[in-house]
Amino acid sequence: MKILVLNGPNLNMLGIREPAVYGKESYAALVAYIKAAAAEADAEIEVFQSNHEGVLVDRIQDALGKHDAIVINPAAYTHTSVAIADALAAVALPVVEVHLSDITKREAFRRHSFVSPLAKKTYMGEGFLGYRRAIRYLALGEE
Q1: Phi/psi at 79 (nearest 5 deg)?
Q2: pTM of the predicted protein model
Q3: DSSP letters of the chain?
């Protein structure tokens, strides 16, 4: 299985930005964790991060015919981007949404997700483990 893992704005600042919320590990540590989780699940993985909505939309569209599924942490675009949701709907690949923190227990404006209705599954509040669970769900059918 070929999985595209997309990470949205400010995830490149992991370990620096609000470590009490997002953890003390760096983005490089997250990428290494994702790659190890993919190897465990015998999945081919591509990891990409951008702070720019249009770039993420382009990557989603480009996934069609190249990837079997998408794991996405849209970060702040979770709550604001109809464009990302529309792109996910257009490519119609299986999608799993991941959030390091539990967005249902955060500020009111963070509780709505435009991605959740399109996702087969959402993992939140589990830190890096959410990515591992998402990959295993897609590649191995594990809940």
Answers
A1: -95, -5
A2: 0.93
A3: -EEEEEE-TTGGGTTTS-HHHH-S--HHHHHHHHHHHHHHTT-EEEEEE-S-HHHHHHHHHHHTTT-SEEEEE-GGGGGT-HHHHHHHHHH---EEEEESS-GGGS-GGGS--SSGGG-SEEEESSTTHHHHHHHHHHHH---
C-beta of residue 97 within 8 angstroms of C-beta of residue 125: no
The residues carrying an active-site annotation are: 22, 99
Quick: pLDDT tens for 44-58. 999 999 999 999 999
Q: Which CATH superfamily is domain 2-140 in?
A: Dehydroquinase, class II (3.40.50.9100)
